[in-house]
Amino acid sequence: AQSVTQLGSHVSVSEGALVLLRCNYSSSVPPYLFWYVQYPNQGLQLLLKYTSAATLVKGINGFEAEFKKSETSFHLTKPSAHMSDAAEYFCAVGSGGGADGLTFGKGTHLIIQP
Amino acid sequence: EAEVAQSPRYKITEKSQAVAFWCDPISGHATLYWYRQILGQGPELLVQFQDESVVDDSQLPKDRFSAERLKGVDSTLKIQPAELGDSAMYLCASSPPRGGGRPGTGELFFGEGSRLTVL
To answer: What is the nearest CA distance from A88 to chain B, expressed in angstroms?
Structure first.
């Protein structure tokens, strides 16, 4: 069984400040990990993915995440927040193979203060 | 860029009525998923198809929900009768097939969703 825990349902940062969204996973097999972003009334868009290659993964819009097996974590960061980053962010875990559904966390709402 | 198409984008219905959602995945994607996302929560898998066959429908409320993918391409999700608690965003996603001995990355490509409001 797989599960994802996202710490903090809401995170608020000032424009230009560091963004840190936390994700911890549980998986009985080597995990494939994903971060998706969702804007209001839209579907989910892939930000980045970890698929057992490099542990530091770079994604779109300046986001990156680091896979830490010892901590079972896959936290999402961005050095400098922009107003356009305000959205809902979801961490997800899969077992890979392209034929298995993903298990999503409950999401973190990112608020950017001007 | 190829996209997953869903319709309708928005649906308002009264409880006890029937409602249907349609999804057309990215061409060549053998696996299709329907997720339900209640406001303020993460998506939860309802049903997964591999071509025209159901792979996982363990979380589908089968007394009122049904899903089909008759020709292994587009899919329909139906609710009959709708209940107040069914108000949610219904997301369709697809993923490319494994092939050439290489494992897929498990990435899902999502449509824009169908938002259902049951009154």
So the answer is: 9
